[in-house]
Amino acid sequence: MNRNTIVIVSGLPRSGTSMLMHMLEGGGMRVLTDEIRTADDDNPEGYFEFERVKQIETDRAWLEDAKGKAVKMISALLKYLPRNYSYRIIFMIRKMEEILASQKRMLVRRNKPTDDVSDEKLSKLYLQHLEEIKTWLKEQSNIDVIYMNYNEMLENSGENVKKINDFLDNSLSGEDMVNIVDQTLYHQRK
Fold first, then answer.
1. In a designed cystine with 27, which of 97, 159, 163, 177 is the match (CB 3.0 to 4.6 A)?
2. What is the mean pLDDT of each run of 10 residues along the chain (190 residues)?
3. Rounded CA gap, 76 and 59, in Å?
């Protein structure tokens, strides 16, 4: 993989992006994270976030430090990626009912309201967003993307790690990546 390429792990919130970041790091990829958001009951292995990503509309200077590394970015921010960089995006997909259940559980743990938006409405908004972002990604000549299913990753991690490693020019230790997958952390089975 070109050392100037930025690997982005993306998807909806609670779609398995932290697990994938952990896997990439375990496989030998350098990750861009600031460790501000620490591990908790919702992500016992950590979040692997880099706070400046959230400011990409106004702060893009950090992208230079992201070259040759993996960084996590929610899918809603992808459209702000500047076109003067090359990206490989690993986009995590997960069963919608599991995403919603995981989000609700996280909100409950944090004593936040869970009834601001109905699951039905949120699901509809998320599905619409996914269609829009997939269409946008197809139109970007500086972005290569692979879609990985969280549920399939847990069921057959070896085969899915091979797909990821192929996508990243076989630059990682697949065995070490597979060893990161922890079935005991899969709480919202549907």
1. 177
2. 92 93 95 81 76 96 97 97 97 93 70 75 94 97 97 93 96 92 55
3. 16
**C-alpha span between 123 and 114 (Å, rounded):** 14
Which domains are delineated in the chain?
Answer: 6-180 (3.40.50.300)
Comparing CA positions, the residue from 32, 39, 23 lying closest to residue 53 is 32
Identify the pLDDT of residue 61: 96
CA separation for the pair 61, 124 (Å, rounded)? 34
Q: What secondary structure does DSSP assign to 109-133, as a single string?
A: HTT--S-SS-HHHHHHHHHHHHHHH
Instruction: Give, to the nearest 10 degrees, the angle between helix 157-167 and helix 17-26.
Output: 70
Rounded Cα gap, residues 21 and 33, in angstroms = 10
**Beta partners for residue 71, in sequence order:** 8
Query: What is the rounded distance in angstroms from the CA atom of residue 75 to the CA atom of residue 69?
Result: 18
Tokens found for residue 60? 């893009």
pLDDT reported for residue 113: 63
pLDDT, residue 38, reads 72
What pLDDT does residue 43 have?
64
Closest by Cα among 38, 41, 36 to 54:
36
- pLDDT tens sequence across 162-190: 999 999 999 999 999 999 886 555 444 45
